[in-house]
């Protein structure tokens, strides 16, 4: 029963996130030179930050860093989900729930960034 409940919750979150992402869809293509986003050529400039290394208490400060980087010219923020959190010992995958919590933390950062209209 527990596995079924977890799977239903997981599928609900996937469907919900797909619906949210569909609201913010844009037209992205590629021509012989570069990416074309909504009919305009665009070269994406990116930076990186390690969200999984942060604690929930400092994530608000990291979001303000995202906003400053957007004003500084960055278009993309790279983030990581460390594999050693999912598989601490080679061949031994940690519990599904722990993996799900780590992925949800990354999604939380992305949703908060979009909610603050940073544009990442």
The major sheet is characterized as: 3 strands, antiparallel
Structural class: alpha+beta
Shape, principal axes of CA atoms:
extended
Radius of gyration, Cα only, in angstroms? 17 Å
Oligomer: single chain
Task: Count every beta strand, where a strand is a DSSP E run of 2 or more residues.
Answer: 5
Task: Count the DSSP helices.
Answer: 4
Helix content: 40-55%
Query: How much β-strand is present in the residues?
Result: 5-15%
Strand order of the largest sheet: 1-2-3
Uncertain residue segments: none
The average pLDDT value, as a whole number, equals: 69
What's the SSE pattern? Answer: HEEEEHEHH
Total individual domains: 2
Could you tell me how far the N terminus lies from the C terminus, measured between alpha carbons in angstroms?
38 Å
List keywords for this structure.
Glycoside_Hdrlase_35, beta-galactosidase, 2 domains, 120 residues, 5 strands, EC 3.2.1.23, alpha+beta, GH, Gly_Hdrlase_35_cat, two-stranded parallel ribbon, single chain
Description:
- The protein is of the alpha+beta class and 120 residues long.
- It folds into 2 domains: 1-42, no CATH class; 44-120, no CATH class.
- The protein is built from 4 helices and 5 strands; from the N terminus they run αββββαβαα.
- The chain has helices spanning 2-23, 59-71, 83-86, 96-115; strands at residues 28-30, 35-37, 40-42, 46-48, 76-78.
- A 3-stranded antiparallel sheet has the order 1-2-3, with no helix packed on it. A two-stranded parallel ribbon has the order 4-5.
- The model has no long low-confidence stretch (mean pLDDT 69).
- This is beta-galactosidase.
- It catalyses: Hydrolysis of terminal non-reducing beta-D-galactose residues in beta-D-galactosides.
- It comes from Coffea canephora (Robusta coffee).
- Residues 35-93 form the Glycoside hydrolase 35 catalytic domain.
């Amino acid at each position: 029963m527990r596995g079924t409940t977890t799977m239903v919750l997981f599928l609900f979150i996937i469907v919900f996130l797909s619906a949210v992402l569909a609201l913010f869809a844009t037209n992205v293509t590629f021509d012989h030179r570069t990416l074309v986003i909504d009919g305009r050529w665009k070269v994406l400039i990116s930076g990186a930050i390690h969200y999984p290394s942060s604690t929930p208490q400092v994530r608000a400060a990291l979001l303000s860093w995202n906003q400053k980087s957007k004003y500084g010219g960055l278009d993309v923020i790279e983030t990581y989900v460390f594999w050693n959190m999912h598989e601490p010992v080679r061949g031994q995958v940690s519990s599904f729930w722990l993996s799900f919590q780590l992925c949800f933390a990354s999604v939380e950062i992305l949703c908060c960034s979009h909610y603050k209209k940073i544009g990442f």
